[in-house]
């Protein structure tokens, strides 16, 4: 059995800390919809973290709280020991869709968030650097509609990297892509992380993707549970499928047990009604 105990970090500055974070939404019948409760999580600077779990467990909601786009119902979210009070220049985010400005060229899309604090020459140099990092230098003068979905997502990643934040948040950035493009971008992202040493928090539904990319997987249970496992992935990179198989099987087993428990509880609820 592989260990999935939460690691204890001593003597190291924690980049992201969630203390007893809970989230619920109001419904028309005034009964709250509890998404998750009492999330306790510490993330070390430079870690590549995957948030994994069933649909509806609150992975994207949790990421939005770290981004400052949403607020917890209770508990605190800290970055570098300071409460997150909204979006800021200490973090950047890549969404499920590229969210590029269609009227701007590729290079102008990357330069757009840099317009404060840099002159045009500096912005151009930074944008060209990160465009080269995602292998799209030849497409700098193209418009988003002239690019494939995978290329658009590369531009979105380059734009986030160009902001030069220590924390990069990614909400299923490869979820809408075909398998071949997804594999290529996984390689790209892994290489970028190895080069930049940024803290990355990556939401995904794919067990295999989470093992391949991250060095730590936070497994969330079905609503309204909390974290059910915290896996340290100590495999050499690049990772081979034969080496990932045992971890994949254990995570799949935990998810199956979690889903079966939820189905059992729903059946009991129907019978009681």
Can you walk through the features of this model?
With 273 residues, the chain is of the alpha/beta class. It folds into 2 domains: 1-90 and 166-242, P-loop containing nucleotide triphosphate hydrolases (Rossmann fold); 101-164, no CATH class. The chain is 37% helix and 23% strand. The chain contains 7 helices and 10 strands. The strands form 2 sheets. Strands 6-7-8-3-9-10 form a 6-stranded mixed beta sheet, sandwiched between helices. The N and C termini lie far apart (40 Å).
CATH topology category name of the largest domain:
Rossmann fold
What's the architecture of the largest domain in CATH terms?
3-Layer(aba) Sandwich
Query: What oligomeric assembly is this protein in?
Result: single chain
What structural class do the secondary elements suggest?
alpha/beta
Strand content: 15-25%
**CATH class designation of the largest domain:** Alpha Beta
Spatial extent as radius of gyration: 20 Å
The shape, in one word, is globular
Continuous helix count: 7
The largest sheet, given as strand count, sense and whether it forms a barrel, is: 6 strands, mixed
Report the span from N to C terminus: 40 Å
Uncertain ranges = 1-12
